[in-house]
Design goal:
The chain contains five helices and five strands. By secondary structure, it is of the alpha/beta class.
Length: 175
Protein backbone atom coordinates (compact mmCIF):
# COMPACT_ATOMS: atom_id res chain seq x y z
CA UNK A 1 0.00 0.00 0.00
CA UNK A 2 2.80 2.43 0.83
CA UNK A 3 4.48 1.83 -2.52
CA UNK A 4 1.13 2.35 -4.28
CA UNK A 5 0.68 5.67 -2.48
CA UNK A 6 4.15 6.78 -3.54
CA UNK A 7 3.48 5.64 -7.12
CA UNK A 8 0.25 7.68 -7.08
CA UNK A 9 2.24 10.81 -6.27
CA UNK A 10 2.28 11.10 -2.48
CA UNK A 11 5.25 13.15 -1.31
CA UNK A 12 5.33 11.53 2.15
CA UNK A 13 3.87 8.29 3.48
CA UNK A 14 3.50 8.34 7.26
CA UNK A 15 3.17 5.28 9.46
CA UNK A 16 1.46 5.80 12.82
CA UNK A 17 2.97 3.55 15.45
CA UNK A 18 1.07 3.35 18.76
CA UNK A 19 3.14 0.68 20.51
CA UNK A 20 6.88 1.26 19.91
CA UNK A 21 7.28 3.66 22.82
CA UNK A 22 5.03 1.65 25.14
CA UNK A 23 6.76 -1.66 24.35
CA UNK A 24 10.43 -0.81 23.67
CA UNK A 25 11.58 -4.42 24.11
CA UNK A 26 9.14 -5.65 21.45
CA UNK A 27 10.22 -2.75 19.24
CA UNK A 28 13.83 -3.88 19.53
CA UNK A 29 12.91 -7.56 19.08
CA UNK A 30 10.78 -7.24 15.93
CA UNK A 31 9.23 -3.78 15.51
CA UNK A 32 12.25 -2.19 13.86
CA UNK A 33 12.44 -4.98 11.28
CA UNK A 34 8.69 -4.64 10.63
CA UNK A 35 9.10 -0.91 10.00
CA UNK A 36 12.00 -1.55 7.63
CA UNK A 37 9.83 -4.01 5.70
CA UNK A 38 7.06 -1.40 5.45
CA UNK A 39 9.32 1.27 3.97
CA UNK A 40 11.35 -0.97 1.67
CA UNK A 41 10.95 0.15 -1.92
CA UNK A 42 8.73 3.13 -1.11
CA UNK A 43 9.66 5.76 -3.68
CA UNK A 44 8.99 8.86 -1.58
CA UNK A 45 9.83 10.26 1.84
CA UNK A 46 8.60 8.18 4.76
CA UNK A 47 7.72 9.20 8.30
CA UNK A 48 6.86 7.35 11.48
CA UNK A 49 4.72 8.93 14.19
CA UNK A 50 5.70 7.58 17.60
CA UNK A 51 2.43 8.00 19.46
CA UNK A 52 2.44 8.52 23.22
CA UNK A 53 -1.35 8.29 23.28
CA UNK A 54 -4.15 10.70 24.00
CA UNK A 55 -5.98 8.72 26.67
CA UNK A 56 -9.44 9.43 27.97
CA UNK A 57 -9.32 11.02 31.44
CA UNK A 58 -9.17 8.40 34.15
CA UNK A 59 -8.70 5.52 31.70
CA UNK A 60 -5.07 5.50 30.75
CA UNK A 61 -1.94 7.62 30.76
CA UNK A 62 0.39 8.88 28.07
CA UNK A 63 3.61 6.92 27.64
CA UNK A 64 6.52 8.46 29.52
CA UNK A 65 8.80 10.72 27.49
CA UNK A 66 11.85 8.86 28.85
CA UNK A 67 10.84 5.90 26.70
CA UNK A 68 11.53 7.91 23.53
CA UNK A 69 15.22 7.53 24.30
CA UNK A 70 14.92 3.77 24.07
CA UNK A 71 13.64 3.82 20.49
CA UNK A 72 14.95 6.99 18.79
CA UNK A 73 18.51 5.81 18.21
CA UNK A 74 17.30 2.61 16.56
CA UNK A 75 14.74 4.50 14.47
CA UNK A 76 17.55 6.68 13.13
CA UNK A 77 19.07 3.52 11.59
CA UNK A 78 15.79 2.26 10.11
CA UNK A 79 15.91 4.10 6.78
CA UNK A 80 12.87 6.21 7.68
CA UNK A 81 13.04 9.79 6.37
CA UNK A 82 11.36 11.53 9.33
CA UNK A 83 10.50 10.75 12.92
CA UNK A 84 7.40 12.43 14.37
CA UNK A 85 7.61 13.20 18.09
CA UNK A 86 4.98 14.58 20.48
CA UNK A 87 6.62 17.50 22.27
CA UNK A 88 3.87 20.00 23.06
CA UNK A 89 3.02 18.97 26.60
CA UNK A 90 6.29 17.49 27.85
CA UNK A 91 9.47 18.68 26.17
CA UNK A 92 12.26 16.24 25.55
CA UNK A 93 15.74 17.59 26.21
CA UNK A 94 16.97 19.04 22.88
CA UNK A 95 20.02 16.76 23.03
CA UNK A 96 17.69 13.79 22.42
CA UNK A 97 17.01 15.14 18.95
CA UNK A 98 20.72 14.91 18.22
CA UNK A 99 20.28 11.10 18.16
CA UNK A 100 18.28 11.26 14.93
CA UNK A 101 21.24 10.73 12.61
CA UNK A 102 20.20 11.98 9.17
CA UNK A 103 16.47 11.63 9.86
CA UNK A 104 14.21 14.62 9.74
CA UNK A 105 12.12 15.58 12.75
CA UNK A 106 8.42 16.38 12.72
CA UNK A 107 8.21 18.15 16.05
CA UNK A 108 4.75 18.04 17.63
CA UNK A 109 4.23 21.55 18.98
CA UNK A 110 0.43 21.76 19.07
CA UNK A 111 -1.50 19.96 21.79
CA UNK A 112 -4.45 18.21 20.19
CA UNK A 113 -5.90 17.38 23.60
CA UNK A 114 -6.92 20.97 24.38
CA UNK A 115 -8.92 23.66 22.61
CA UNK A 116 -6.51 26.45 23.60
CA UNK A 117 -4.76 27.93 20.56
CA UNK A 118 -1.01 28.01 20.92
CA UNK A 119 0.91 31.26 20.57
CA UNK A 120 3.10 31.25 17.43
CA UNK A 121 5.94 32.95 19.34
CA UNK A 122 5.88 30.15 21.94
CA UNK A 123 5.91 27.50 19.21
CA UNK A 124 8.83 29.25 17.50
CA UNK A 125 10.73 29.53 20.79
CA UNK A 126 10.56 25.77 21.33
CA UNK A 127 11.61 25.13 17.74
CA UNK A 128 14.63 27.43 18.25
CA UNK A 129 15.75 25.26 21.18
CA UNK A 130 15.65 22.17 18.97
CA UNK A 131 17.38 24.00 16.11
CA UNK A 132 20.45 24.18 18.33
CA UNK A 133 20.99 20.46 17.72
CA UNK A 134 19.53 19.84 14.24
CA UNK A 135 19.64 21.83 11.02
CA UNK A 136 16.61 23.84 9.82
CA UNK A 137 16.13 21.74 6.68
CA UNK A 138 15.57 18.68 8.90
CA UNK A 139 12.81 20.25 11.04
CA UNK A 140 9.07 20.27 10.32
CA UNK A 141 6.62 21.88 12.73
CA UNK A 142 3.56 19.73 13.33
CA UNK A 143 0.69 18.97 15.68
CA UNK A 144 1.33 16.26 18.26
CA UNK A 145 -1.10 13.96 16.49
CA UNK A 146 -4.17 14.11 14.26
CA UNK A 147 -6.66 16.95 14.63
CA UNK A 148 -9.82 14.97 13.87
CA UNK A 149 -11.20 15.11 17.41
CA UNK A 150 -11.05 18.91 17.52
CA UNK A 151 -13.83 21.14 16.19
CA UNK A 152 -12.80 22.30 12.70
CA UNK A 153 -12.40 26.00 13.65
CA UNK A 154 -10.07 25.03 16.52
CA UNK A 155 -8.06 22.67 14.31
CA UNK A 156 -7.68 25.36 11.65
CA UNK A 157 -6.59 27.93 14.24
CA UNK A 158 -3.99 25.52 15.63
CA UNK A 159 -2.64 24.89 12.12
CA UNK A 160 -2.57 28.64 11.48
CA UNK A 161 -0.47 29.05 14.65
CA UNK A 162 2.00 26.48 13.29
CA UNK A 163 2.19 28.30 9.96
CA UNK A 164 2.74 31.64 11.72
CA UNK A 165 5.52 30.11 13.85
CA UNK A 166 7.12 28.64 10.74
CA UNK A 167 6.97 32.04 9.04
CA UNK A 168 8.67 33.64 12.07
CA UNK A 169 11.49 31.11 11.89
CA UNK A 170 11.89 31.43 8.11
CA UNK A 171 12.09 35.22 8.39
CA UNK A 172 14.80 34.89 11.05
CA UNK A 173 16.77 32.49 8.85
CA UNK A 174 16.60 34.92 5.92
CA UNK A 175 17.71 37.92 7.99
Amino acid sequence: EARALADAGCAVVQFDEPAFIREPEKFKAWGLDALRACIKGVGCATAVHICRGYPAPGRDVKAHTELYGEVLGALATSGISRICVEDSTEHLPPAVYGRFGDCGLELGLVNIGEHTIENPATIAARAREVLKVISPERLWLAPDCGLLLLPPPIAKAKLAALVAASDLLKNEQQS
